TrEMBL record:
Stretch forming the signal peptide: 1-21
InterPro entries: Malectin-like_Carb-bd_dom
Keyword field: Membrane, Signal, Transmembrane, Transmembrane helix
A GO cellular component annotation in the UniProt record: membrane
Subcellular location: Membrane
Keyword DNA repair: no
Membrane topology: Single-pass membrane protein
Subcellular location, principal: membrane
Protein name in the entry: Probable LRR receptor-like serine/threonine-protein kinase At4g29180
Domain Malectin-like: 31-210
Source species taxonomy: Eukaryota, Viridiplantae, Streptophyta, Embryophyta, Tracheophyta
Pfam families: Malectin_like
Amino acid sequence: MGRMGVWLLVGMVGMLIPVHGQDQIPGFISIDCGAPNDYYDIELGIYYKKDDGFVDSGENWQISTLFINENRWQQSKNLRFFPNGTRNCYTLRPEKGKGNTYLIRALFFYGNYDDKNQQPLFDLHIGTDYWTTVNTFNWTYYEIIHVPTTDNIQVCLINTGNGVPYISALELRLLNSSIYPLNSASLSTRWRYDIGSSDPMAVHRYDSDNTKPTHN
């Protein structure tokens, strides 16, 4: 019984290490907005946190049951919406702080959560600066590469009078500053192309996106 107990303990520790390790990925902040708890996404290999502690306004909700099973990504199943106020902000606190280059990704899936079947239109700001306008019914994301001048980064949803703002997920990734040398400007992603892929529907993201290409 003693030996069995030791092997059981070793097995449990081995199972727990990957999850704890993903919580410590350097330069990552991964938030599932509206999620009831933190979790490890096995498919992506990323540990996601619920958004408590990053925002102090808004309400959590689940998308319509008609869309739950149609969506591959766990981050699309819940959201936080903001029925009150014109400006509601998430505060991100990256470990490396100001002066470093970060990719910030905001993800959205309306999923008819409010049973109105009417996609709202609203703006995104980085601090007080305009980033983009969100206007989509389908699962989508917006990205910006940004060098903050303070240790905290605010991502704000702005009610423009065209519906209640919402957000499904928010992610931050530390980048090598030499890749995108920026001074006082930010770069917003417009298009992303996969050149030469044999699968036009393939999705490349962490952690499989670091695979070296093969040449035939």
